[in-house]
Amino acid sequence: MMSKTWLVGGAAALAVAAMTSGAWAAGPAQAPKSDKKVWMSEGSERDEALKLKPNLENGKDIYEVCSACHMPEGWGLVDGTFPQVAGQHRTVLIKQLEDIREGNRDNPTMYPFALPSEIGGAQAVTDVTDYIARLPMNPKNGVGPGDDLEHGKKLYADNCTRCHGETGEGDAAKFFPRIHGQHYAYLVRQYQWIKEGKRRNANPDMVKQIQQFTDKDTKAVLDYVSRLKPPKELTAEPGWKNPDFK
């Protein structure tokens, strides 16, 4: 097992290597480019991964690769460079990981580390996502400025609850992610990419719905979302450290 010091200290180096080298030992630095927008691909490895029984110990071993950026606790970084993945629905984690592997979602930083040649096939995806989904969530994620929360609350109620739920809990069966507890800066970036069509695997209903949002609307609603808290049973105690990485 790699030491936690190496994992945290190596995050920047690994990210820089992925972005600047053009290639990594696992394969090319980015999936083949395509303008095709794919929300739910059919007949993909995702379907296989969803049906397999997870091996938690193998998932923990595979997560060593992920923890260099997402941190040992799965909490990412408050500045939004890397998202919190801890506690996310396993179905959502499988979809997003497979979309990156298949080139349906552009993520040149993560792509080399997500390849089958680096972490394994469908069973590996099943295993690592099961491990991540079990990690307790960050009790203190990055939030927005807090200066327009009433406006954000109304926008969320009118536009977002149908898919993401009243408290940001999402819907595992429909592949709608948990967004409570997510870092504000990450939410803003992904929202903008979805609106612009850059995040090609986004739900087309959401892409259409947010086109009329102004910058003021965007900041307000995502500030409100960043302050939605996961339920206590899914949240770590302040100062919690992942005992699997010492």
Structure summary:
The protein has 13 helices and two strands, in the order ααββααααααααααα. By secondary structure, the chain is an all-alpha fold.
Written description of the protein model:
- Helices cover 48% and strands 2% of the residues.
- It is mainly alpha-helical.
- It folds into two domains: 4-134, Cytochrome Bc1 Complex, Chain D, domain 2; 149-234, Cytochrome Bc1 Complex, Chain D, domain 2 (Orthogonal Bundle).
- A two-stranded antiparallel sheet has the order 1-2.
- The radius of gyration is 17 Å and the shape is globular.
Sheet with most strands: strand arrangement: 1-2
Q: End-to-end span in angstroms?
A: 9 Å
Class by alpha and beta content: mainly alpha
The outline comes out as globular
- Uncertain stretches: 1-27
Number of helices: 13
Oligomeric composition of the shown chains:
single chain
Major sheet: 2 strands, antiparallel
Count of DSSP strands: 2
Total tally of structural domains: 2
Topology:
Layout: H1 4-9, H2 11-20, E1 23-24, E2 27-28, H3 45-51, H4 56-70, H5 90-102, H6 111-114, H7 116-119, H8 122-134, H9 149-159, H10 161-164, H11 184-196, H12 204-209, H13 215-226
Antiparallel strand pairs: 1-2
